[in-house]
Each structure stands twice: as C-alpha cells, then as structure tokens.
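Input (structure):
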C-alpha cells in the first residue's frame, strides 16, 4: 500500500505537465512515458528542467534556436555555472557540506567544503583577473588529480575564461600543441604527481612545452610537499596567489552560449580538435544526467574514478556533481598500487554510494582476482557506472557479482567528449541488459542507420546517429568550424557519432566500437593518425600505419607497422627507441605495445593506407572487400 502510494506520487509528479521531477527512480513504464514527452516537446522538457533545477540571472527568450547545423540553447539567458555549482549551495546553508574528499597515493587525505571551495575559486578568479585574464581568454590547465585542479577550472568559469584542461599524462610536445592552438596566456600546473610510488615531475613538462612559446606570460604552480626549488620569474605559487586576493569575486555574467571550456580530443586526422562546450546547455544537461543516471542525492558519496583531463572528469567530477550539491571522492595514483585492494578499501573507509569507472579497470581487477575486493565491506554501494568503452558481458557479470554483490544497478553510459553528457544509458530501476548500454536519455533520439542514413532493422549493425541537437552538444571545434560541420554533414540531417551499434526490439542500444580510425586504449581515445604522424617524425621511419588489436585488459592495444628509411636496419633496440620516441612525442598512453618492421603497406590505388586490411591480416580474419587494393 505504502509502496503503491509513493509510486503514484512519483508518477503524478513525473507526468504532471508543469513539473518534471528529477532524482526519483523510475519504473520502465514511467521512463517510457517521460521519454515520449521529452521527444514530443524537447523545448518544453528542457525548459522545465532548466527553470526548476538551476539559478539564472536572466531567463531565455527561446529554449532552442536551430539553424542547421548550428544550434543555440536558452538564447539570451544569462548565468554563471559557478553560481549553480557553489554559491547557491552556500547560500542555502550548506557551506559546511563537503564538496570533495581527496586521497593521495601515500594515503594523505584532504577535504574541502562548498564554502571553502567557493572562497578559493573566488581568490584564484581575482588573481586571474589581476593577471589580465578576461572573459573569452583561454587558460590551459595541466595538473594531476588534486583539489587545486577543480579550483583552477572553476576559477576560470567564475571570470568567464575558457579552460582547456590537458591530461597530465600527455607529453611536452602534445601539451605545447594544445597551448598554442588555444593561445593560452596563462598555464596552471603543479610540480609533480605520484604514480606507483614514484614522483613524476609535471612542471618540467610545462617548462619544455612553453620553451620559446611567447604567448605564455605566466605559469601558476601548485607546489606540493617537499618542493624546494626557486620559482622562475614567470612563475607564481598557487597558494601565494590565493593568499594575496580576496575571497569574494563577482561572477562574470555569461550568456548561455558563451564558451565554458575547450577539451582537445582525437579525431581521424593527426591533429586533435578542440571541442567547445558552452555555459547554459552544458550546465542543464550535466546537472540533470548526474542526478538521474546516478540517482544522486546531497547526502550521497559519489566516486567517479576518471581524471578531469578527460570529459568524464569535467562532467561527472566537476560540473554535474557540484551542481547537484553532492560530495565526490577522488584518489590520485594507480588503482592497484600498493595493491589491488586500494579502491575497495577506500569505498569501505568513506562509504561510497555511487561508483563510476571504466571497463578497463574492471577487467584489470578481474585479472587480479576476487580476493582483493572480498577483503572490503562494499555494502554502502548502490549504483555502479561504466563508461568509455563497451563493457563485455564477462566484465559486466564480474562487476555485478563481486563489486555490486548482485544488489547494485550497473549503469552503462554511452557518450563522448562531443556530447558533453550521457546519451544512451541504463537508468537505475529500468531493466539492465548486460553488455548493452541501454535506452536513450530523455530528449535524445539515437538511431542506427546504414551508410546512406536509412534505418537498419533491429539487431543489425549500423552507424550510430542522433537526430536533433541536445543542450550539451558541442558547439564548434575551436578555430576549425569545418571540423564541427563534419559531425552534422557526414550523414546529412543527423549528428554522426562515429560508433557502430545495434538496437534490439526493446529499443536497447549496444555499442560495438568506433567506425573510424580512432582507438580506445584503456578507455582513452587515441587517433591512429596521431600515432602515425608521431612515428614518421622519428628519423629512421619512412612510413607507418597503426591498428588497434583486442586486448583483454586495455580493450585495445596499439600495433604499429613501420617502413624504415634506407640505411636503417631493423633491430630490437631500434624498436625500443621508436617506442620511447612516441612516449616523448605523445605520452605513455599512446605507446604501441607492438611494432613490426615491414617492406610495404596495403594501400588503395589512390594511396590511402588500408588499415582494415592490416588488421584483418593481423587477426587472421577475412580481408573483406579488397577491390580498391593496389596490386
Ligand atoms: O566509442 C565510444 C566510446 O568512447 C568514445 C568517446 O570517447 P571520448 O570522447 O574520449 O569520451 C569517453 C567518455 C565519455 C565513443 O565514441 N564509449 C564511450 N562510452 C561508451 C563507449 N563505448 C561503449 N560503451 C560506452 N558506455
């Protein structure tokens, strides 16, 4: 009886035309009804969410303005995302609620409340303004997973500067490329990070990256315990800066469509593209998906194990959880160091309720064996998330049984840097199908189509496309609008995701992997062309091709085929030398596991390398259509 009543209340609220309830668990039937509403009237749907969930300085004239392929959400509305993430919680009496709990690899712990976070964001915002950074300027952030990283991102957002976070695992040339492309006058970094017990110097990477780069005027360095070197004339200490500036900072009044951040990601060319997200729509969508998909409540402890160097960290460590007033845990260092019980001990120690990670981590724990997670009490967990690559049914079952103890829902969330937030996902309480990402998020209309854009029958492999824009869709590629247009022009009328998928009779989507030359190595997106151009920049390499091979932990591993220049002889030491060169050029994440010296590469008659043929040969699979193959 009581259960029926509460269900009726939920249903009533969900279906009431003037109010869309969030944060409630929905039954499958309720999901379907609400989804239909969101598709029939997306503007009404998102307008209601935006009104009810967020604070706006000025409301919009129109929810969506769509001039294909460009779109604007919440036109002429004004707001600042940090007000939704910080000020409003502090003003509502939650100054002492925790925003983050940080744990270092050596076990050190730090906590920061919403009030303290707001103070620090304001101080750094004031400092950036004093350095001449104004609305629309870009700031590059190259930091490890530490509280100062969140402060840096939010301080930029506070004053309307556009942050460009570069993952701390990228090498100096990769960082330089991104700083130059974004034209950042200020870089925020830290002295070092710790990985597997070793200190890794990050500041020296910045030094090398900006050497001779006149655009960079100042480097703000978050110094850490034990640092004793003298700062260079162009450097200032993060903590000194905080101390020097006041803890109130008027938030910049932002148009809903003003840029919030750029995030460089890999595409099919050698050059990464700067995906641009804007303020209003991104805030609405990440707030809403964090709340619904993770069923996030203020007293929940949420742990997204990503790094803010990737979009998962932007949306579900920083903006989504903070906008919901939740508390997040974060942990610097490796998941299996000093041993593979580390993460599970943290879940027990802090009582994590919602846990979000990548299948590659699950597969790694699977390999280590159950004994490490059995040592910890995981009873606080309610929801488990997966992101970044398809979760194979074996890993799904292992995660469900050993971490979720058969109790927790697994939400498999499919999305991309470009989409800003979850697009296809399992929702808590809605049926889970192992290995399938699930149903579309509200307001999202995905389809599986053939090469000409025609829908394919159920359970048939095709290209994943999305009809119509959604609030957090990328707005452009920084300085390269033609690359943005490709998303909407590859399959005219649709957003082309670049993934292969199927959809079953129940409308559940299964993501099979990329349709293009983009690899997913340990859940990190890497373009084959990026690795190839780094390979050919080695003095001994004439030509190179790269493929992804199935890998039981990483999902995919990189194999490179290399033609040497005349006068260079194949040897193991040359292989090592070339691999080290890739680490120096791009970072360890792009280092090929295997290299093979070859005399030729399969090419089309027009000279394009047929990676598909290389891959089929490597895996002993049928070569497929080779009619365009050069003799
Ligand atoms: O191939 C899909 C895969 O990751 C790609 C997007 O990579 P990135 O922009 O780096 O963002 C990763 C984190 C959102 C997609 O094109 N991908 C992401 N999530 C899933 C996935 N593949 C299968 N299942 C997922 N849940």
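Output (sequence):
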């Amino acid at each position: 009886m009581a259960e029926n009543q509460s269900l009726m209340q939920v249903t009533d609220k969900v279906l009431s035309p003037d109010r869309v309830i969030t944060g409630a668990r929905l039954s499958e039937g309720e999901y379907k009804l609400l989804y239909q509403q969101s598709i029939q009237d997306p503007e009404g749907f998102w307008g209601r969410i935006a009104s009810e969930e967020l604070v706006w300085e000025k409301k919009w004239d129109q929810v969506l303005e769509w001039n294909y392929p460009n779109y604007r959400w919440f036109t002429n509305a004004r707001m600042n995302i940090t007000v939704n993430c910080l000020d409003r919680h502090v003003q509502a009496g939650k100054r002492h609620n925790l925003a983050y709990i940080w744990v270092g690899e050596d076990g050190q712990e730090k906590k920061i409340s919403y009030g303290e976070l707001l103070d620090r964001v304001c101080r750094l915002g004031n400092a950036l303004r004093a350095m001449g950074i104004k609305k629309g300027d870009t700031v590059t952030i190259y930091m490890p997973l530490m509280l100062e990283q969140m402060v840096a991102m939010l301080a930029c957002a506070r004053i309307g500067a556009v942050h460009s976070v570069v993952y701390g695992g990228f090498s100096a040339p990769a960082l330089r490329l991104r700083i130059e492309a974004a034209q950042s006058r200020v870089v925020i970094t830290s002295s070092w990070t710790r990985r597997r017990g070793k200190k890794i110097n990050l500041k020296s990477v910045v030094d090398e990256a900006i050497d001779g780069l006149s655009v960079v005027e100042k480097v703000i360095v978050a110094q850490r315990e034990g640092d004793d070197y003298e700062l260079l004339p162009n450097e200032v200490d993060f903590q000194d800066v905080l101390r020097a500036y006041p803890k109130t900072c008027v938030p910049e009044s932002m148009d809903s469509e003003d840029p919030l951040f750029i995030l460089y990601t890999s595409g099919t060319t050698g050059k990464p593209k700067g995906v641009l997200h804007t303020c209003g729509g991104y805030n609405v969508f990440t707030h809403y998906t964090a709340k619904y998909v993770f069923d996030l409540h203020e007293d929940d402890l949420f742990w997204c194990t990503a790094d803010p160097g990737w979009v998962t960290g932007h949306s579900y460590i920083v903006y989504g959880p903070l906008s919901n007033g939740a508390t997040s845990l974060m942990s610097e260092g490796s998941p299996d160091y000093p041993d593979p019980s580390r993460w599970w001990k943290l879940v027990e120690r802090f009582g994590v309720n919602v846990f979000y990670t990548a299948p590659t981590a699950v597969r790694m724990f699977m390999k280590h064996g159950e004994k490490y997670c059995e040592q910890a009490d995981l009873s606080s967990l309610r929801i488990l998330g997966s992101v970044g690559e398809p979760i194979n049914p074996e890993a799904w079952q292992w995660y469900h049984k050993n971490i979720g103890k058969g109790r927790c829902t697994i939400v498999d969330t499919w999305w991309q840097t470009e989409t800003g937030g979850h697009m296809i996902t399992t929702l808590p309480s809605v049926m889970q199908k192992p290995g399938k990402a699930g149903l579309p998020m509200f307001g999202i209309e995905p389809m599986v189509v053939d090469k000409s854009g025609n829908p394919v029958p159920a359970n048939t492999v095709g290209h994943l496309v999305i009809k119509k824009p959604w609030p957090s869709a990328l707005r452009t590629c920084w300085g390269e609008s033609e690359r943005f247009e490709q998303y909407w022009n590859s399959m005219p009328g649709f957003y082309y995701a670049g993934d292969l998928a199927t959809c079953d009779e129940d409308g559940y989507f299964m993501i099979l992997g990329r349709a293009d030359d983009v690899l997913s190595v340990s859940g990190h997106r890497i373009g084959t062309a990026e690795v190839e151009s780094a390979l050919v920049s080695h003095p001994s390499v004439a030509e190179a091709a790269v493929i992804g091979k199935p890998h039981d932990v990483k999902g995919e591993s990189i194999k490179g085929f290399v033609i040497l220049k005349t006068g260079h002889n194949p040897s193991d030491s040359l292989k090592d030398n070339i691999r080290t060169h890739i680490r120096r050029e791009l970072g360890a994440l792009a280092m090929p596991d295997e290299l093979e010296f070859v005399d030729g590469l399969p090419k089309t008659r027009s000279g394009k390398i047929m990676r598909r043929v290389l891959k089929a040969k490597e895996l002993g699979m049928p070569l497929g259509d080779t009619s365009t193959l050069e003799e």
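Notes: The longest strand covers residues 541-551. The mean pLDDT is 92.
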